[in-house]
Amino acid sequence: MMTTSHLLDDIRNVNLSYLLLVQRLLNEDRSSAMFRLKLNEQMADTLASLPISQLAKLANSNQLLCHFALVDPSQLSSLTTQQREDDLKRTHAAILLAGSMRDDEEEVVLKKGRHHGR
């Protein structure tokens, strides 16, 4: 049985690995990384410019910084149970994630509209 302290260490390690991957993706192909990570320009700039000391500080949390992108169980099921070719699975996942990104952006626009309307 894993203790809470081991779980927290694992979360911190995942966070740091994730943040390092984010920076690497942003440095290698910024627009693709922003799409994959659902980051806006400002967040991409901020994350790309953080030194390792700040990444370590940010990673030192009891909460995961990354989240599971598939929120609908049917999406997960269709990607794991259907006998498709790997390339088709990746394309399908990209379409599903792009759709959820568009939904997230529309929600932000709606919230901003309500906020400015007050």
From TrEMBL:
InterPro entries: Flagellar_FlhD, FlhD_sf. GO terms for cellular component: cytoplasm. Its main location: cytoplasm. It comes from the Bacteria. This is Flagellar transcriptional regulator FlhD. The keyword Nucleotide-binding does not apply. Keywords: Activator, Bacterial flagellum biogenesis, Cell projection, Cilium, Cytoplasm, Disulfide bond, DNA-binding, Flagellum, Transcription, Transcription regulation. It is found in: Cytoplasm. It comes from Kushneria phyllosphaerae. The C-terminal region contains a putative helix-turn-helix (HTH) motif, suggesting that this region may bind DNA. Belongs to the FlhD family. The keyword Cytoplasm applies. One of its GO terms (molecular function) is DNA binding.
